[in-house]
Amino acid sequence: MVRSKSQRMVRMILAWIVVGLFFFPLYYWMTVAFKEGREIFDIPPRVFNFTPTMKNFEEVFGISFGFGFGEQREVLPGGGNWYMTPRLLDSIIIAVGSTALAIAISTFASYALSRMDFRGRHHFVGWVLSTRMMPPVAVAIPMFFMFRDFGLMDTHFGIILIHALMNLPLAVLLLKSFFDDIPREIDESAIIDGASRFLIFRRVVFPMAKGGIAATAVLCFIFSWTEFLFVLTLTQTGLKTVPVVASTFVTSTGTAWGNMAALGTAAMIPAFIFILLVQKQLVRGLTLGSLKQ
Amino acid sequence: MSQSSAMQGRFWSFDRAWPWLLPMVAMLLVFTVYPLLYNIWLSFHEYAPLKRRLVYVGFENWQTLFADARMWASLGVTLFYFVVVLIIQLVLGMALALLLDSDDPGMGFLRGVLTLTLVVPPAITGMMFLLMEDPEFGVLSWFLEQIGLLTSSTPILATPATALWGVVLADVWQWTPFMVLIFLAGLRSLPPEPYEAATLDGASAMQIFRRITLPLMNKVIAVAVLIRGIDLFRMFDYVFVMTSGGPGTTTYTLSLYAWQQTFSFIKWGYGATISLLALVIILVIANLFIYIAKVRW
Amino acid sequence: MRDSDRKQYLAGLTDRYVNRRIGRRDFLRNAGLLGLGAGALGSGMTRPFFGVSQAFAQDNGLTPSKDILDWVRDVSKPFAGKTLRLATESTPPSNAINSQLKKYFEEASGMKVEIEVLPLEQVLQKMTLDIASQLGSYDLYYIDQSWAASVSNDVFDPREQIAASADLAMPNYNIDDFLPALVDGIAKYGDRWVGVPYDIPIFMMMYRKDIYEKMGFKAPGTLEEYYDQAKAISKEMGPDMYGATGQMKSGHYSLECDWTAWLWGHGGSIFTPDGKFSGNDEEGLAAMEYWTRLKETMPPGVTGWTWDGQGQSVAQGVAATMMSWGEFFPYFDDPSATKVSGLMEAVRCPKPKKALRTVDQTGYGEIPGVGHQGGSSLAVSKNSKNPDAAWIFMQWATCADTQSLITALGGGTGPTRNSVYDDPRVVANRRVGPGTTRHLDVVRETIAKDMGSEPDLPQWAELSNDTIPVRLGKYFAGEYSSAKEAMDDIAQATDKIVAG
After folding, report:
1. Helix A210-226 to helix A156-180 angle, to the nearest 10 degrees?
2. Could you tell me which residues come within 8 angstroms of residue A11 by beta carbon, excluding any fewer than 6 positions away?
3. Which of A43, A149, A237 would best serve as a mutation to test chain C binding (most C beta carbons within 10 A)?
């Protein structure tokens, strides 16, 4: 579609304004992370004119910027020890692990669902989707007993498993729709050439669907990164992820807003890096036109 | 050649669907069927704090459920929230996806920035908006007061007329980019030929969108709507953090109610009963949608 | 409170230097231990207080007593290598133990202590799952007073533990040192002790000295006087200053806390002796009438605030008084977090308007009193696989020495033991500054004379977190035509839940 230059300009400006609006709450939250307690609650709220401090980060990550890096420091806001670096690592391990697992299982499954006809496929997909419909509150308690019996309680592997599982319906559905967009003729001609299904999957379809897989991986990562209830119920002291430890900033003596914002801000970074890495695949996108030639 | 038909005879063949599906089915069976059965069993029991175990109560939970005015009120709030937010996110998400579906310089960056909202855990998002919508110290309340849309005597989250919209705002902020991300992936995979043909025929942008883009995207849209719809129906974090369901019961959702019964009052049986009801309702809605939208998987 | 102890001790050190109680050389030596030159002291005093507290704490005698650690070392020999687990709310004592003190215990005992910090309702959930599944994954329970009834049979009575195993009992543990009012209000259920009192947030009256002087007011003696003062301040100094504030978020426990203070203060009670809800009687309605009036003197945002927003409204100079959790007081004195450092004064709550009901006139062990308490107890679980080891830890965590350190290091939290209030390390912190203890005399007096305790019944969690605050929230949102209608509705719902 050919558009005039002025149309493109308008579109660019509009895009910047809209994304700017979406970015503002994040920006404001970041400023909270860099503010001293008394500035967070100034009236009128301070959006640009505040005195930045690293104090909140020092307290949350045990890093004293004046003195170099250190391990756990005893920080005492209301007696609190909010040393969160290990929790950030837990989050990364779990999100990456569960994304890998979910993607591995769901690419296989959705390839079959996209390419092979079998009776009841429509209902089978419906069933897969329905496994996401159970309210998490209802899953938490049976899972607790199950994890206890399987020895998965309080382990990274257990949480990776449950997060992968939680993401399967989403991943399968999305990937299936992406695979569906790749013409079946490609598979069929490869079969005539003597290629096995598995070879086609690995060499032809998988590379073509990379963009879709990347998008799906981003979403799986995000859902695992932000999941709250399973981690809360199925862990004790062995591990905790960011959303769960963030709730400890709400204390009986008030909420540590600055520290919470510092953790929230820092926790955006690993996730953003993951998205950026995957985004390359995303932007390249699926260009079906070129495939069809 | 008949190589493929020869392979079909073999049991352990990748020409059959089941070896591909096996890992997924195994996981789903173990980890979802058991909880479902457990919840059905649980809905006929109740935790007795003084006996410290579950006791059989028959249909009591189910009877309570249908007579529980609070439950019906929460169901109403949930359905209203579900419809309103889904429509906003669908329309806004599509508009933004179309806006950002461009290779002009900077657009890739903007797409990346937009997905940042998804990275924030919903519980923290709730706290963010709680702070911004605070009647005394919040930047959003302050701004709305400056432009005269709000007076200082109407705290957004504590006024029945506005509380739910305060929550909707957080949800729309966080999850519209989810729709954008999925729609963009769909838009980027559309074949260019129909567009070229339509442009040659002199079709307007609106016509192209309605006649070509929407039909080609229908499956992606369906997936996005289903996934988001399911999650919206289970929404809990925002109301839990921002309003505790208040003022009164104006923002009580079904999930919050079930959470409270389960976690705060240790009524596991009744919590399970509410959850099962929620499951049945969303199953009906989802299947209705699949039927009406003529989605074939 | 929400600041590092480093700052607090440096400030103390500087005080002493300025007052010539220590020489320049000692001062510089101590400052050197803090990792900073004298020049840095003048420049902001914000940064360099991290990671050096241990040296400094040792220098100031803020380490556990050697005798007690020796005892720990002695009795723990059979338990070396064991791991003890505790799930707790994020409260000052638990945080102080977790971050500062448990390492001493671990070193001495050879045991490992893992403390899981969670939101309050999660603590309840984890405890219930642990009890229901007999899992024994937690060795100690942190028990909010409202759960005492439900778990009283799942924990050891500390007096029985002392009697049962004399060889494990800490010498001079002195269980009678716990404030009797707290034992009654928090730990006791029937005749059993459900652990020992562990923390004690309690309502007291905090007000801005400067504003009260300007207005020519004295600390309010009665509730009616308090209202008049609040109204006058809102009128004179408004609209940017309010006379009172509150924690009145609909559907939140904090709203119920505020309610009980006004209810008890008007001679009312939650329950009658025969277990019926009595918030809708004459006294109950007088309390509602008072509260509705008083709310007019509060910032309009109170209906969206829990204790956090309430505390902030005072800390940021929006409200002049606050009758609420005394735990906020040390926070107000922190100049980096608030605008009212040194301006706040703490006194006992105003006198009730009508004589308080006695325990005999109420139901379920409810104790009327304007000073609402929200304390918790600590107890060893009967499901624990190492109850003896857990008992050693519990004695150590709740002994007078550790409790004094918790108060000193944990930012001026209210102690549950009488002797801790007089401990020199606690008394030394009675100065303006973060983590001050200058309010603790009022806390002790409030506990002894004004304390109000909620009833103990298994349904109380539901009543106090939902039934009552949701309907009160509706009332303040204007969804009832009158206070009477609201209270009648609460009465009906409560009686139904209590009847089961």
Report:
1. 150
2. A3, B99, B102, B104
3. A237
Among chain C residues, CA nearest to A60? C50
Q: Do B1 and A194 touch (CB under 8 A)?
A: yes
Q: Is the pLDDT of residue B4 over 80?
A: no
Interface touch B260/C466, C-beta < 8 Å: yes
Q: Find all residues with CB under 8 Å of C178, minimum gap 6, and list them.
A: C187, C196, C197, C416, C417, C418
Helix, strand, or coil here: C192?
strand
**Would you call A177 exposed, middle or buried from its count of C-beta atoms within 10 A (0-12, 13-18, 19+)?**
buried
CATH class in words for C203-372+457-499: alpha beta
pLDDT in tens, C100-134: 788 899 999 999 999 988 878 788 888 988 888 88
* Chain C contact for B244 (CB, 8 A cutoff): yes
- A10 contact B CB<8A: no
Question: What is the C-alpha to C-alpha distance for residues C107 and C74, in angstroms, rounded to an integer?
Answer: 12
Three-class HEC string of B105-167: CCHHHHHHHHHHHHHCCHHHHHHHHHHHCCCCCCHHHHHHHHCCCCCCCCCHHHCHHHHHHHH
Minimal CA separation from B201 to chain C, in Å:
58
Task: Report the residue of chain C nearest B241, measured CA to CA.
Answer: C252
Beta bridge partners of B47: B54
Residue of C298, C311, C164 whose CA lies nearest to C238: C298
What subunits make at least 3 CB pairs under 8 angstroms with A?
A: B, C
List of chain B residues whose C-beta atoms are within 8 Å of the C-beta of residue A45: 137-139, 142
> Which C residues, 154 through 213, put their C-beta within 8 Å of a C-beta on chain A?
199, 201
Residue of B52, B250, B263 lying closest to C125 (CB–CB): B263
Backbone angles phi, psi at C344, to 5 degrees: -95, 150
Instruction: Classify residue A202 by its DSSP letter.
Output: I
pLDDT tens column, C224-241: 999 999 999 999 997 889
Q: What is the DSSP code (8-state) at residue B102? A: -
C379 conformational bin, left if phi > 0, alpha if psi -120 to 50, beta if neither: beta
CATH 3.40.190.10 maps onto chain C at 66-201+373-427, 203-372+457-499
Q: Which of residues 132-151 of B touch C (CB under 8 A)?
A: 134-137
| Of the options 2.40.320.10, 3.30.1330.10, 3.40.50.2300, 1.10.3720.10, the CATH number for the domain spanning B68-292 | 1.10.3720.10
Quick check: B266 and C461 CB within 8 A? yes
Give me the DSSP letters along C123-149: HHHHHHHHHHHT----SEEEEEGGGHH
Candidates B144, B251, B266, partner chain C, best to mutate (most C CBs within 10 A): B266
CB contact under 8 A, A25 and B275: no
Per-residue pLDDT of A169-227, as tens digits, reads 999 988 888 888 788 888 888 888 888 888 888 888 888 888 788 888 988 999 999 99
Residue A80 has a pLDDT of 42
**Pairwise CA distance, residues A255 & A115, whole Å:** 53
Fold type of domain C66-201+373-427: D-Maltodextrin-Binding Protein; domain 2 (3.40.190)
Interval A148-177: pLDDT, tens: 888 998 999 999 999 999 999 999 988 888
Chains with at least 3 CB pairs less than 8 angstroms from chain C: A, B
Distances (CA, A) of C160 to B37, C157, C186, C194, C467: 43, 5, 18, 11, 37
* Cis, bond preceding B155 (omega within 30 deg of 0): no
Helix (H, G, I), strand (E, B) or coil at C243: coil
Out of B134, B160, B266, the one facing C477 most closely (by C-beta) is: B160
Q: What is the ipTM of this complex?
A: 0.88
Q: Do A133 and B14 touch (CB under 8 A)?
A: no
CB C268 within 8 A of CB B122: no
